[in-house]
Amino acid sequence: MMSTRCKVCNSAKNASQENSSVNWECENCGSLLDSKGNIATV
Q1: What pLDDT, on the 0 to 100 scale, is given for residue 37?
Q2: Could you give the CA distance from residue 18 to residue 42 in angstroms, rounded to a whole number?
Q3: Cα separation of 12 and 28, whole Å?
Q4: pLDDT of 2
Q5: Beta-carbon neighbour count of residue 6 at 10 Å?
Q6: DSSP secondary structure string, the chain?
Q7: What are 4-41's pLDDT values in tens digits?
Q8: Which burial class, exposed, middle or buried, applies to 16 when counting CB atoms under 10 A from its CB (0-12, 13-18, 19+)?
Q9: CA 15, CA 22: separation in Å to the nearest integer?
Q10: Whole-angstrom Cα distance, residue 41 to residue 15?
Q11: Phi–psi pair at 25, nearest 5 degrees
Q12: How much is the pTM?
């Protein structure tokens, strides 16, 4: 199983529902990130 790491605070996102095209919000720092863990620009 893969996990994606937040580039801001380095916490891991569990990729149990892997959807590589959807942005996600880090639960630790609240940053909006893309599938690679980089800051997502809207």
Answers
A1: 86
A2: 20
A3: 9
A4: 64
A5: 21
A6: --EEE-TTT-PEEE-TT--TTS-EE-TTT--EE-TTSSBPP-
A7: 888 889 998 865 555 567 888 998 999 999 888 899 87
A8: exposed
A9: 12
A10: 21
A11: -105, 125
A12: 0.63
